[in-house]
Amino acid sequence: MTSASELAERLRPAIDDERVLAAIASIPRELFVPERERTRAYENVALPIACGQTISQPLVVARMLELLRVDAQDRVLDVGTGSGYHAALLALLADRVWTIERHPELSAQAQRAIAQLGIDNVEFLVGDGWNGVPEHAPFDAINVAAATGDEAPAALDLQLADGGRLVAPVGTAEQHLIVTRRTGERFERIRMEPVRFVPLVHDEDVDEDERWA
Question: Do residues 98 and 125 lie in contact, with contact meaning Cβ atoms separated by under 8 Å?
């Protein structure tokens, strides 16, 4: 498998959303992986990137996008920019995307990769994604690309618009994708398939030396 379009076709049996498949087919994944991993860019596997992080398995990325049910008019928050691949796909599906990453190096690399594609509806932020981006809320959809532990951050729930959806890997020893839907002040949660993600690091979980390294 050597192209984005071939990757999309391989995912088709598991993904029903044609807009998601079209986005996968349109984004060259090799731009978002380190040079040493580019021969594996279109394998359906997670790959290591800088700062001890990973670019997620394409099937899991596609599934999260499908569960988010992103509309072309939506405002979307992407928590955990990582490689920027998820943000690039969201940018094709939504009106505007804010993506936040606590590692400045990753954020800068992602911004360069997305700029190469001519995508201009993504705003890059460096900070603690656990707290979301309240100054730009509410969001129609929130994607969390790192494991949140036993519960998704409450701050993210509150930044959903009425009717908004949040998808996050939740759990410690075992993780599952959890879909949260907001209706007024009510939050409905549905547990989906098992996954494995690196942890979402909260600034309160690191010491001062690491925080400012």
Answer: yes
Number of helices (H), then strands (E), in the chain: 7, 9
Cβ contact 124:110 at 8 Å:
yes
The residues, ordered by sequence, that sit 6+ positions from 154 with a Cβ below 8 Å of its Cβ are none
> Which stretches of the chain score pLDDT less than 70?
1, 203-213
- Write out the residue range of the structural domain in which residue 118 sits: 4-211
Paired residues of 182 in beta bridges: 187
Q: Tell me the per-residue pLDDT of 5-40, one tens digit each, with 9 for 90 and over.
A: 999 999 999 999 999 999 999 999 999 999 999 999
Total domain count, the chain:
1
Catalytic residue among 3, 26, 56, 107: 56
For residue 70, the 8-state DSSP code is -
User: Residue 178: which H helix or E strand, with range?
Assistant: strand 175-183
Looking up residue 66, the CATH number of its domain turns out to be 3.40.50.150
In one-letter notation, the amino acid at residue 51 is C
pTM: 0.92
Gap between the Cα atoms of 83 and 173, Å rounded: 25
Q: Which two tokens stand for residue 126?
A: 């460096």
Query: Exposed, middle or buried, 116 (CB in 10 Å: 0-12/13-18/19+)?
Result: exposed
Active-site annotation holds for 56: yes
Torsion angle of alpha carbons 172, 205, 101, 31, nearest 10°?
A: -60
At residue 168, the pLDDT reads: 97
pLDDT of residue 211: 35
